[in-house]
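Practice problem 4.
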């Protein structure tokens, strides 16, 4: 996969930036979409974007432990105020994609080059 900045990711997704965290210049080259905590722990890295419909505070605690730079919520799901505050305190970028998981992941695959032989 080709690494892209979080600002490029947000633009490609048409996502709203909720928190800027440690910066939109941070590059990602992996995406994990799902809600199984065990899979998140196994597949995360400091260059992984987590795509999920779980907008809960425990997910942010987990993201902090995993050291992921950003979380993208799907279907226009807005995180609660305490989730936003926790993300700001931890320096985590929060994005809100206007489309569902499948379409969000398709756009990310095209952006990061998975369709050209890359893997997440």
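Answer key:
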């Amino acid at each position: 996969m080709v690494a892209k900045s979080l600002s490029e990711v947000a633009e490609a997704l048409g996502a709203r930036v909720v928190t800027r965290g440690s910066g939109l210049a941070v590059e990602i080259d992996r995406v994990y979409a799902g809600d199984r905590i065990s899979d998140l722990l196994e597949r995360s890295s400091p260059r992984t974007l987590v795509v999920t419909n779980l907008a809960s505070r425990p997910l942010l605690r987990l993201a902090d432990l995993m050291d992921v730079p950003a979380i993208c919520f799907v279907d226009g799901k807005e995180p609660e105020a305490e989730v936003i505050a926790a993300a700001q305190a931890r320096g985590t970028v929060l994005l809100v994609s206007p489309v569902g998981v499948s379409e969000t992941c398709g756009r990310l695959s095209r952006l990061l080059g998975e369709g050209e032989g890359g893997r997440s």
